[in-house]
C-alpha cells in the first residue's frame, strides 16, 4: 500500500467529548469518525483493524467447528413477539415500521431468527449439534453511548448460537467455546480474564464473560490471585433464587393479570380487595424472574435497607439510597415501591413497573401474601457487590483483589428458553419429540478495537499488537522525491515484504521525517524501517519497533526475516 493513495487523516487534538485514551487516539489517528451519538464511520485505517479482529475470530470459530452464516440486520417483529422480547426488551431495542405499517426491529442479537431457521431445517437428532455464527452489525439504543465505539449504538458483534439434543452436549460445546474464546483473545494480544457472569434467569455457572483488564473498564471484577475464582461484581444479582417457589404461607393464585396498571386493577384481577390481604404479590417479571411488588401499606418492607435487598433484587445499583423508599420515591397510596430481580435498573424501574404488571399475565405464577425474606430467602451465594480488596474469597482460598474490566466476550448456556418459546424441536433417537438445548456466544468485535488500545498506548499514540495492526510495518523513505536510490530501495523492499505476506505501507507522501514518524507512531504501526542515502551506501536501513527507544541498523536484505 502507498500512503499517497491510502486515506490518512490524523488530528492534532482529540474532540472534547472523547473522555478516555482509546477514544481520543481512535479519533486522532483517523480510525473512526462520528456521524451521530454512538454511530461511527469506520474509516479505512480503522476498518483494517476491524477486519483483522474479525479474521482471528472467524479462524478460531471455524477451527472450533462453528459454521458461519449471516442473518438480516432488519428483522420482522413477529418472531420477537414469539419470545415476548418485542415488548420486554425496553428502549435498547430499536423498533420501527415499514410502509405497510408492519413492525420491525434492528437486531441487538439474533436468537429469534437463528431459532426460526433451525426449527425449520433441523428436525432429527442426527442433524445435531450445530453451532451457527455470524459477524454482523448490531444496534442497541444505549442510554449512554460513550467511549467511541466501545459503547456504541451501532456496533459489530460476532454472535454464535448452538443447538443440542441434551444439556450434557450443550455443556460440552460451552467448554469448547470457552477454549475458543481463550485462543481468540490470546491471539489478539490482549491481557484478559474469564469471569463468572450474571446469567439473568438462567442461574448457576452457565455464563462467563471475558474481560480485557483496563483501568477505564465499566465493570468491576473480583478475583482471587491465588485461585481460579473470578466474578463480575454484578454477579450477585444473578445469584438470587431463579424460580418462583410457592411456600405454605404464600398462596399461589392461578390468574392472568393482563393490562393491570394500578393496584386496584391488579387486585381485581387477583380477585382480591386491595386493602384486604394484598400486601405484596410476586409476579413473573422479565425472563420469568420473580418480581416482588411491595404494595400499599407494606411499610415494614418499604423500609428494608437497600443493601439487604440488594442481594435479592437487582435494581439496587443506583447511587446509594439507604432504603427502597429512597430509591423509588414511594408515595403512600401509590403502587410501589417495588423490587425486581433481573436486569432492570433503578433509573428504569418506575416506568418499567407498568410493563411488568402488564407482562405478568402467565398462569400459575402469582402469589399473594408473599414475604420477601421468608419466601425468597437470601441468596446462597456470596453477595460480592460491596466487596473490597482484601475481603475473603468466597472459595475460601485467600483474599480477593479487585480490578476493572471491559467486557469483550460473553458466553451463555441459554438452555431451552428460546427453543421452548419458539417450538424448536427435534425427533430423538427414541422417536420422541424434544425441545433443543441452546447456547449463545458473543464477542464485541468493534469494542475490541478500543479495548486493545486501552492496553497498548504511550504518549505518542497507539501500539498495536502485530495480529491486529492496520499495517505491520511502515517504510519511511528519507527524501522520496529527491533520491532515486532511496525510491528504488524503498520500492524493492515494499515488493519484497508484500511477497512475504507482510502487511506493509510505504510512506511516499514526501513529508518531513518528523511528520511521518509522528503520524505512524500515532497510528501505532508496530514496525518501522527508515531508508536514507547514507545507510544505503552500506546496504543498510534503520529499524525501530514501536516500543523500542532507539533504532537499530539492519541490512536491507535481512529485513524480511527480521520482521517475520
Ligand atoms: P454491556 O454489559 O457492556 O452492556 P452486554 O452484556 O449488554 O454488554 P452482550 O449482550 O453480552 O452485551 O453482547 C455480547 C458482546 O457484545 C459484549 O460482551 C460486548 O463485547 C459487545 N457489546 C455489547 N454492547 C455493546 C455496545 N453498545 N457497543 C459495542 N459492543 C457492545
Ligand atoms: Mg448492554
Ligand atoms: Mg454486560
Ligand atoms: Mg454481556
Please give a structural write-up:
There is one protein chain. By secondary structure, the protein is an alpha+beta fold. The chain is built from 18 helices and 28 strands. The strands form 7 sheets. Strands 3, 7, 8, 9, 10, 11, 12, 18 and 21 form a 9-stranded mixed sheet that branches. A 5-stranded antiparallel sheet has the order 13-17-14-15-16, covered by helices on one side. A 5-stranded mixed sheet has the order 25-24-26-27-28, with helices on both faces. Bound molecules: adenosine-5'-triphosphate and magnesium ion (3 copies). The site of one magnesium ion has 3 residues, from strand 18.
Write out key terms for the chains shown.
9-stranded mixed β-sheet, 564 residues, alpha+beta, 24% strand, 5-stranded antiparallel β-sheet, binds adenosine-5'-triphosphate, elongated, binds magnesium ion, single chain
Amino acid at each position: 500500500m502507498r500512503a499517497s493513495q491510502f486515506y490518512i487523516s490524523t488530528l492534532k487534538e482529540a474532540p472534547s467529548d472523547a473522555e478516555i485514551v482509546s477514544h481520543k487516539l481512535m479519533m486522532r489517528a483517523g480510525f473512526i469518525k462520528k456521524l451521530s451519538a454512538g454511530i461511527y464511520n469506520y474509516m479505512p485505517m480503522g476498518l483494517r483493524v476491524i477486519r483483522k479482529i474479525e479474521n482471528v475470530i472467524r479462524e478460531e470459530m471455524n477451527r472450533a467447528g462453528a459454521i458461519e452464516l449471516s442473518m438480516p440486520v432488519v428483522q420482522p417483529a413477529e418472531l420477537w413477539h414469539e419470545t415476548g422480547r418485542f415488548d420486554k426488551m425496553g428502549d435498547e431495542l430499536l423498533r420501527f415500521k415499514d410502509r405497510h405499517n408492519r413492525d420491525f426491529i434492528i437486531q441487538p442479537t439474533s436468537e429469534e431468527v437463528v431459532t426460526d431457521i433451525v426449527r425449520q431445517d433441523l428436525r432429527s437428532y442426527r442433524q445435531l449439534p450445530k453451532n451457527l455464527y455470524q459477524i454482523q452489525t448490531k444496534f442497541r439504543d444505549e442510554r449512554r453511548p460513550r467511549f467511541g465505539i466501545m459503547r456504541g449504538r451501532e456496533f459489530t458483534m460476532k454472535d454464535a448460537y448452538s443447538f443440542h439434543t441434551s444439556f450434557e452436549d450443550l455443556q460440552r460445546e460451552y467448554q469448547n467455546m470457552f477454549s475458543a474464546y481463550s485462543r481468540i483473545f490470546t491471539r489478539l494480544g490482549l491481557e484478559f480474564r474469564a469471569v463468572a457472569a450474571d446469567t439473568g434467569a438462567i442461574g448457576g455457572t452457565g455464563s462467563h464473560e471475558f474481560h480485557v483488564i483496563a483501568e477505564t473498564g465499566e465493570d468491576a471484577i473480583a478475583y482471587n490471585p491465588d485461585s481460579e475464582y473470578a466474578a463480575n461484581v454484578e454477579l450477585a444479582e444473578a445469584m438470587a433464587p431463579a424460580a418462583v417457589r410457592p411456600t405454605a404461607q404464600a398462596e399461589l393464585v392461578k390468574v392472568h393479570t393482563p393490562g393491570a396498571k394500578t393496584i386496584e386493577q391488579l387486585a381485581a384481577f387477583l380477585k382480591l380487595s386491595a386493602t384486604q390481604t394484598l400486601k405484596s404479590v410476586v409476579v413473573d417479571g422479565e425472563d420469568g424472574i420473580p418480581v416482588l411488588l411491595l404494595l400499599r401499606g407494606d411499610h415494614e418492607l418499604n423500609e428494608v435497607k437497600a443493601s439487604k435487598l440488594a442481594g435479592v433484587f437487582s435494581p439496587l445499583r443506583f447511587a446509594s439510597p439507604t432504603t427502597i423508599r429512597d430509591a423509588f420515591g414511594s408515595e403512600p397510596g401509590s403502587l410501589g415501591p417495588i423490587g425486581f430481580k433481573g436486569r432492570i435498573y433503578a433509573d428504569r424501574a418506575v416506568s418499567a413497573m407498568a410493563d411488568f404488571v402488564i407482562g405478568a399475565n402467565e398462569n400459575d405464577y402469582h402469589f399473594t401474601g408473599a414475604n420477601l425474606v421468608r419466601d425468597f430467602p437470601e441468596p446462597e451465594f456470596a453477595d460480592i457487590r460491596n466487596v473490597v480488596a482484601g475481603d475473603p474469597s468466597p472459595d475460601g482460598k485467600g483474599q480477593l483483589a479487585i480490578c476493572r474490566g471491559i467486557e469483550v466476550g460473553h458466553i451463555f448456556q441459554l438452555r431451552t428458553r428460546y427453543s421452548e418459546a419458539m417450538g424448536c424441536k427435534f425427533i430423538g433417537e427414541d422417536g420422541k419429540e424434544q425441545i433443543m438445548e441452546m447456547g449463545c456466544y458473543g464477542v464485541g468485535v468493534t469494542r475490541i478495537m478500543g479495548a486493545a488500545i486501552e492496553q497498548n498506548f504511550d504518549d505518542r499514540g497507539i501500539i498495536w499488537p502485530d495480529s491486529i495492526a492496520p499495517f505491520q510495518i511502515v517504510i519511511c523513505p528519507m527524501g522520496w522525491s529527491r533520491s532515486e536510490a532511496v525510491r528504488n530501495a524503498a520500492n524493492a523492499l515494499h515488493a519484497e515484504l508484500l511477497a512475504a505476506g507482510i502487511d506493509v505501507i510505504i510512506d511516499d507522501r514526501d513529508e518531513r521525517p518528523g511528520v511521518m514518524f509522528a503520524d505512524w507512531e500515532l497510528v501505532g504501526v508496530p514496525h518501522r524501517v527508515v531508508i536514507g542515502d547514507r545507510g544505503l551506501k552500506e546496504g543498510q536501513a534503520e529499524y525501530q519497533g514501536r516500543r523500542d527507544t532507539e533504532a537499530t541498523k539492519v541490512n536491507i536484505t535481512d529485513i524480511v526475516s527480521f520482521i517475520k
